């Protein structure tokens, strides 16, 4: 968790009739959570545009987040703040720091489906340049971290989690290119036949490619280490090809290639000690999509 400050605030300027945003920002920088909340109250934002009012609420949310981050830094368990974090999320729809913290809570509780959702929402919220101005945005390394955790939680989840939560699927966030996505397309054991959940994930991938319109994709199949290396390499290629044929039949118009890696490149989770062997193998079994614009 990282602290937030409002040193620069493009929308808080003298030409604006909304002074609530400036007041909330000043309170945030002074560590005055009550002052930030007061500035974000509905009565205080009557002169603000919808965007300014929303941003003012998010600044107040950051004041709450900073208090929680300070408490966690002092040893308080993050999960004890879940209800408060959810209330802040419900009020302002974010910001990404709140969503990231909720993802951390559910990841620790092995609630992988909801953790994947939170991390993906955090990533998309961070990319919203209107409601997440530069001073509020994560740096490039943190954007990549959010994407990695969203991907990891998708692979760990029992049910499919969409590649995009709000709007079109993206392979770039605030100028940070994310060419490769690990998809949780699942197959019947030892075959290249989709499970019902795998078919659902394949459909989601097609919708993602349909909106992103990459000119070319490479599908890279991976397996777990169970079985012979030669058999796993053959199986991983067959699974990548099965997905490619599904995407083409569904309407993907770009060019494509397939690669089978077998067990050569196991998935590298954020914290391997958080999983048992069966789950580590589940993370290994994946098809990665490498896109080229």
TrEMBL record:
Main location: membrane
Keywords, comma-separated and alphabetical: Cell outer membrane, Membrane, Signal
Location of the protein in the cell: Cell outer membrane
Keyword NADP: no
Span of domain OmpA-like: 174-293
Residues in the signal sequence: 1-17
InterPro entries hit by this protein: Bact_OuterMem_StrucFunc, OMP_bac, OmpA-like, OmpA-like_sf
UniProt GO cellular component terms: cell outer membrane
Family matches, as PANTHER family: LIPOPROTEIN YIAD-RELATED, STATOR ELEMENT OF FLAGELLAR MOTOR COMPLEX
Entry protein name: OmpA family protein
Annotated organism of origin: Ensifer oleiphilus
């Amino acid at each position: 968790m990282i602290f937030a400050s409002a040193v620069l605030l493009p929308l808080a300027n003298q030409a604006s009739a909304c002074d609530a945003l400036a007041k909330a920002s000043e309170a945030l920088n002074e560590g005055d959570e009550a002052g930030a909340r007061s500035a974000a109250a509905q009565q205080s934002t009557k002169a603000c545009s919808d965007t300014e009012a929303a941003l003012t609420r998010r600044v107040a949310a950051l004041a709450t987040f900073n208090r929680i981050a300070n408490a966690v830094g002092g040893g308080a368990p993050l999960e004890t703040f879940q209800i408060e974090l959810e209330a802040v999320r419900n009020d302002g729809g974010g910001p990404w720091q709140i969503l990231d913290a909720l993802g951390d809570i559910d990841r620790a509780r092995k609630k992988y489906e909801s953790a994947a959702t939170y991390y993906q929402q955090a990533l998309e919220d961070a990319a919203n340049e209107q409601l997440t101005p530069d001073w509020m945005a994560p740096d490039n390394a943190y954007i990549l971290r959010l994407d990695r955790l969203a991907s990891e939680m998708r692979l760990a989840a029992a049910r499919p989690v969409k590649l995009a939560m709000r709007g079109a699927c993206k392979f770039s966030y605030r100028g940070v290119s994310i060419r490769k996505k690990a998809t949780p397309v699942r197959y019947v054991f030892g075959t290249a036949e989709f499970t019902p959940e795998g078919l659902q994930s394949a459909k989601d991938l097609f919708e993602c490619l349909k909106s992103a319109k990459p000119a070319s994709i490479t599908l890279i199949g991976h397996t777990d280490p169970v079985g012979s290396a030669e058999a796993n390499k053959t199986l991983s290629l067959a699974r990548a090809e099965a997905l490619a044929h599904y995407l083409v039949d569904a309407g993907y118009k770009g060019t494509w290639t397939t690669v089978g890696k077998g067990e050569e490149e196991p998935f590298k989770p954020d914290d391997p000690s958080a999983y048992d062997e069966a789950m580590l193998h589940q993370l290994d079994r994946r098809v990665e999509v490498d896109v080229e614009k």
